[in-house]
Design brief:
With 623 residues, the chain is an alpha/beta fold. It folds into three domains: 7-211, Rossmann fold, CATH 3.40.50.970; 220-380, 3-Layer(aba) Sandwich (Rossmann fold), CATH 3.40.50.1220; 389-577, Rossmann fold (3-Layer(aba) Sandwich), CATH 3.40.50. Strands 5-4-6-7-9-8 form a six-stranded parallel sheet, with helices on both faces. The chain has a six-stranded parallel sheet with strand order 14-13-12-15-16-17. The protein has a six-stranded parallel sheet with strand order 19-18-20-21-23-22, with helices on both faces. The radius of gyration is 25 Å and the shape is globular. Residues 440-575 form the Thiamine pyrophosphate enzyme TPP-binding domain. It is an enzyme of class 3 (hydrolase). Residues 39-133 form the Thiamine pyrophosphate enzyme N-terminal TPP-binding domain. Residues 223-356 form the Thiamine pyrophosphate enzyme central domain.
Amino acid sequence: MTRPGDSLRLTVAQAIVRWLMNQFIEIDGVETRICGGGFGIFGHGNVPCLGEALYPVRDDLPLYRGQNEQSMGFAAAAYAKYHLRRRFMFCTASAGPGTANLLTAAALAHANRLPMLMLCGDTFLTRLPDPVLQQLEHFGNPSLGLNDAFKPVSRYWDRITHPAQILQSLPAALATLLDPADCGPAFIGLPQDLQGWAYDYPAAFFAKRVHRIRRQSPDMAEIAEAAALLRTAQRPVIVAGGGVQYSGAVAELTAFAETHGIPVVETIAGRANLLADHPLNIGPLGVTGSDSANTIAGAADVVLAVGTRLQDFTTGSWTVFAPDARLIGLNAGRHDAAKHQSLAVVGDAKLGLLALEAALNGHQAPSDWVTKAQAERKIWDTYVATNVAHGNRPNSYAQAIGVVNALCHPRDRVVTAAGGLPAEVTANWRTLGIGTVDVEFGFSCMGYEIAGGWGARIAQTEKEADRDTIVFVGDGSYLLMNSDIYSSVLTAKKLIVLVLDNGGFAVINKLQNNTGQASFNNLIKDCPTVPDPFTVDFEAHARAMGANAETVANPAELAEAFQRAKAATKTSVIVMQVDPYEGWTTQGHAWWEIGTAEVSASESVRAKHVEVEGGRAGQRRGV
């Protein structure tokens, strides 16, 4: 029992750990420690003091040893995404290159609005030993260092220069991590000497505290205006983003759409808001979307965008909506709610949908509009069924997706990122369970797949231990970052990893060709600096990291291998070659703004420039 005036003499590192241990969150009436643990690689910048503080609580605040700081950050992001931003992991890295490796992961978490706490080493406050190992010296500014590079990729940034500062900094960082509008990574720089300095901290600072995610009620004037606009709509559509899941508003979204008869299209982040067979699910929207969703979005006169930041792959660089369509932005973030002169409704998705439903008082959209949308979805479903079917044609991403989709459990989690797989999964995956698809396309970051799968699996075993985490990864991303196959085996966090080898960066080769250029430096065989191309033995490589591994020749063999992987108790890697040219999903695409060469010696490049620019005619100009 602490009394006013009681204090505890602790090092800064010990105080940080003790404080984290006592922060809880209430989720569905159950109190859970908000920090699920951490990912750490120790070095001279964090092991003497922070490592000393973490050791006594290793059973309650587990520290997973990563193989690369960047992949640790990816794993932390995937963990937070699985928990719908209600729990997070910290990452700790040493000073210098260890911390620098976290920059990409911080950018990913920032773009995806995901909570991640970074506790990173820094140079000595006293400067007595300067210049120290790995220190970047700025001759005109001795206070400037590597950790300053995290300012643009952090939602909260601080460098602790006195032990008392954590009394304000830690709660401020946590408030950012839990804020629906400002959620993102928090960075705290910890100078190496200061980590071990002692201070008499108020005992009350370490009292147990239970947090709750804030739900901002929308302004009723904004609700009234949005409802009035929806009442005028003859062809309304709902764009459902990832924020629907973070708000826990899937049931409210579904009920709203059903009550008012409004078709729903999904963003990449919102890919599993509705099951595939829901009659109002018209499909994924945008550049990597579906003909059904893009057709309906293009014909809509009022668009209700819920919990989406409306990035260019969702909006087709702002060509998927009619130029005169009116937008309503329901979002916890003011910045997102007001994009493209939307009628902004700033507030929580769940509360906003409930308020809109009450204001609409049973109003329904014209039934022929819903009938048209459903007819478009049936056409798209027929295309997907043909696209994923395998037979006498080259192996493709879509076929592999179809095999897994047919054999997985509805609660298995699917993870992919970057390259060609996000488009193929988004277009071809039929959602079997709400919130079971993680396509990282906010930052479109190669290397997220296996690391993110590991982080998701750590989270999944806390709630759904009997379900699998399935990773789709191309050969390019695999070669970039694969070491968390080893991590998953070491920590007994089983993954099923499908390595689909198309001989390089095939999707960028496709883009290169689609802009009139010759294949160059993307497929391994097209690299002028590669005299003797060869295929990596991914099976042997995965086995060397302790995983089960096998190579299959076709989708039929993939189905058999996948069933063996499901039955296995440790990570399994299945390798299949896919054609780099054939088998891509050719339908469902919207126009996407890319830079093309206006002047070129190549006639095909000049022609493609004219063709690409021709798609600009339907681009909204922010009105």
